[in-house]
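User: quick one, fold this
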Amino acid sequence: MFGNILKSLRKQSKLTQSDLGKILHLSQRAISHYESGERFPDEYTLNLIADYFEVSVDYLLGRTSK
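Assistant:
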């Protein structure tokens, strides 16, 4: 669920995985792993992603639609 939400937010913002990685100081590979569900970000990174996209962590986790 998280991976699909992240990918959707990234595409809505017209960012590549590499672009988002640079913004968040992560590698393109890390973003790819998150989107594919191979890995899950730690709490700090999860909060960075939520802050960047101006959404709640609950939204990123699929717990709320807001």
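User: anything notable?
Assistant: Residues 25 and 45 are 10 Å apart (CA to CA).
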